């Protein structure tokens, strides 16, 4: 994982070691922050481009709205900052991490009516999020003993830093038990999502995904729903239980980092034939083409050149 040498911090490009963060940073103590995960890909026609940059930055600003944080940057400003960072780092294909957090200020829980906020953009090179084996042969998942907080405790529409403690605990539990990723149930026992991915199941050709009430509104999830729609396949957004999940023909995860990851086993039960299913394999192949500009008929304006 090669890190970019430069970052964007509060409006300027810095060498990463020069961008200092105070120990009095409110967000460090209380997890008040919002972030994004975005990928740039080398394009078929040459150069790099960022996939669905505007949608990611719009979600970042929505997360800030949920947290009632005011930042002096527009969507266009932060899109330009993301591109500038990739350019300065010389990356055509990388992961982009914009982050906003309550900055050095009063250190009580109450950060003040209009707390100071820092904004940064980092880059690194990132391969398969769930490992090459997971992506090629299918990942192995475990339903977590950690439950997604109630909708009035965690704001699922926000990609909020402190909320990820729940996911970190679940992920560590799953890895320690020998699995690749955890799946979280909600407080009523229905499936929600992975710690960094949305969840899809297929049974007899019918595609289902969990409803937006309990999950992050994933941009990869939106991309897959739109892609399947243009192929005449509708996706039902509905709650389902772990036994329905175990009995699916195919299961896959979606996420910017995880892209389209097939699932071969959940809780010791093989999914389908215990290898990536045919519909998942097609979605995965086409997603990989869409993000590299090989299928321009999908999503006009989805690719912003790093130029
Ligand atoms: N759920 C969670 C909890 C996530 O962290 C992510 C990654 N951002 C996703 C779903 C997938 O979202 P996206 O496709 O926008 O990356």
Would you give an account of this structure?
The chain has eight helices and 17 strands. With 307 residues, it is an alpha+beta fold. Strands 8, 9, 10, 11, 12, 13, 14, 15 and 16 form a nine-stranded mixed sheet that branches. Strands 1, 2, 3, 4, 5, 6, 7 and 17 form an eight-stranded antiparallel sheet that branches. Helix 2 packs across helix 3. Bound molecules: 4'-deoxy-4'-aminopyridoxal-5'-phosphate (PMP). 4'-deoxy-4'-aminopyridoxal-5'-phosphate binds next to helix 6 and strand 14.
Number of helices: 8
CATH superfamily of the largest domain: D-amino Acid Aminotransferase, subunit A, domain 2
Shape: globular
Bound small molecules, which ones?
Answer: 4'-deoxy-4'-aminopyridoxal-5'-phosphate
> Can you write the helix and strand succession as a string?
EEHEEEHHEEHEHEEEEHEHEEEHE
Task: Describe the structure using short key phrases.
binds 4'-deoxy-4'-aminopyridoxal-5'-phosphate; 2 domains; D-amino Acid Aminotransferase, Chain A, domain 2; D-amino Acid Aminotransferase, Chain A, domain 1; 28% helix; 307 residues; nine-stranded mixed sheet; eight-stranded antiparallel sheet
